[in-house]
Amino acid sequence: MWMGLSYVCWGISAVLALWMLYDWFKVDTTYSEETLTSSREGELEAVSETHRI
Amino acid sequence: MTAAVETGKTTTIHGDRVSLLRVLGPAHVWALGVGIVLVGEFTGWNFSADKGGALAALIVCWIVGLLYTSVAMIDSEVTSTVAAAGGQYAQAKHIVGPLMAFNVALFLVFAYTMLEVSDAILLGDTIVAKAGVEGLTHNSFIAATIVVLAWLNYRGVLMTLNVNFVITAIAYVSIVILFFSVSPWTQGAVLKLNELVTPGNALPYGWIGVIAAFQFGIWYYLGIEGTTQAAEEVRSPARSLPYGTMAGMITLLIAAAMTWYVCASMMPWEYLGITYYPLWDAGKLSGSPLLEELLFVATLLSALASANGCINDAARAWFSLGRDRYLPSWFSAVHPKYRTPYRSILFLLPIALAFAFIADLNQAITFSILSGVLQYTFMSINIMMFRKKWPLGTIRRGYTHPFHPLPAIVLFCLCVVTFFAIFLGFGSQLIAMTIFYFLISLWFHFYRYKFVRRGDQFTMPWPKPQGY
Fold first, then answer.
1. B31-396+406-451 CATH choice from 1.20.1740.10, 3.90.180.10, 1.20.140.10, 3.40.50.300
2. Distance CA B351, CA B349 (A)
3. In tens digits, what is the pLDDT along chain A, a chain of 53 residues?
4. Which of 65-84 (B) contact A at CB < 8 A?
5. CB < 8 Å from A in window 415-454 of B
6. Would you give the end-to-end CA distance of chain B in angstroms?
């Protein structure tokens, strides 16, 4: 059972790592660099007032 | 208009900016802080018994508790004012200066990444110990721990800390269940404190053993200051951060006291000081198979919660460095859908994996502790400068800590004692890390700082500091 669990762990790790790489590629090719790196420290309070989840 | 705004049905973006989400409350702050720390009750603190005996482990539990209470109070005051991702980094940037801030951010990244590595190794080793199967190694469990938790962090902070709240609460409740299951009000039935800790063996190495025990006494509370990394993602930083941090500290003081009492009453100090699983062992010694299984699961959950919080915190510190161009601004990207610092999470993922596969547990833990204590030393200086530059009444504070400057002085003195204790045990690592931080500071000062937009990095709408 434990050896089987070990293989499952490798499998899950590989799948999730690949998914993150795919999503990273998708996001970086969809959005501009200016948009992705547009977060600013000093604008947080204003953001919180208008935030919608 | 940006592409992000055009696809705004699934992506919430405010104007042209993509920011971290403000969705957390005090319970999440508690889960982040206690989640990172609680693993220290399941392993780590007990090595202080090896350094100075069972009584030394109790003495450092309280004295180091004082150190961390000072940390929590100081942190709560400054962070309720400087509510930004990066926590102590943002504090240092505004109060001390860029070079200090750069160093503090590195302390944070090292402390949390190495703690994450230690947690993953611990989890893998615990499963291997439980399985007892020949040929089974911890590598697959380490990889799954780090990758799954990185994925969780990648997908969003709310779910990450909801998960942390649940697993931390289960691990904490397991300590409480163990405590009440061994009849703590009676000696002799299960607990034998008066036989195991006697005047003859309470402090086998005298008071120098107590000093040496500081090195591992840190484990009772290491990481509670990580709550400040959530500053940019809590709905009300001025309220949630002090509540969450102070509640976390109180929770941990109770857990530490219960843990010591149960373990010191069930195991001789010679064994307690070398075992990797004091609480799991206590579960076994209780004679209850249910308690044994519960403490095994709780050990795993505490390691998971700690690694989860560490990924969250290390990524925010790294992200903040990128946002201020202390590192390439590429790292400051926020995921437009999940609103997490996804590039920082992904960048730190292989580093954590590499260390987890290569480094051994003791080295990883020592690097984490050293970076943590360097950070606490900075905090004692930071609060003195903060109160001097912006005295009470000059800026709005969400929380004002009492008895200033006593907590800062206590914190500084206890940090000095802890450095001495670390020097006794790991002198060469201490020197190596000091040289590393010195060289990296030179690199930042002479090379990297020219890329920083100097006016943009100071964002708090504060009046000019006194004396300027």
1. 1.20.1740.10
2. 5
3. 889 999 999 999 999 999 999 999 999 999 999 999 998 886 544 444 343 43
4. 83-84
5. none
6. 42
